[in-house]
Amino acid sequence: MDLRPYIRDIPDFPKPGILFKDITPLLADGKALRWTIDHLGERYRGSVDIVLGIESRGFLFGAALAYALGVGIAIVRKPGKLPSHKLAAHYALEYGSDTLEIHGDAFGEKARVLLVDDLLATGGTAGAAIALIEQLGAELLECAFIIELEFLHGRERIAPHKAYSIIKY
Q: I need a labelling partner for 104 at 20 to 30 A (CA). Which of 7, 51, 72, 155 fits?
């Protein structure tokens, strides 16, 4: 299925010069959403112990995919949102820096983790999430994205880890 018709371009969001790829039309269409989760489910069935969703759109796809795979979901959040013992990873953005956090008991050592987010851009957010997976001693199987902005070279930033994306721009 071609998901491009379900991705809306929003110019100058969240700041001038950015062309935002809005996935809300995909989420609103039952057929497109089901195809997306089924497609990813077929790819990862039987190989994953837990899905790790990145705040916030990674939670949407990650939870549905975890359900389809019959596994749990762990979450990576921005600072101050997790109530228990947590680990942090800092990363650079085009316009500053940020931090991601994960609960220290999100999954056990040796867990086979699938990282899920809606979009791979520069790879900063995914790279920080990968660092958290490694801090917990787990195995990252692959990073799965709905969209990849190839011109920003995010795949190179998260190498040597494998990445899969459904749509590439």
A: 155
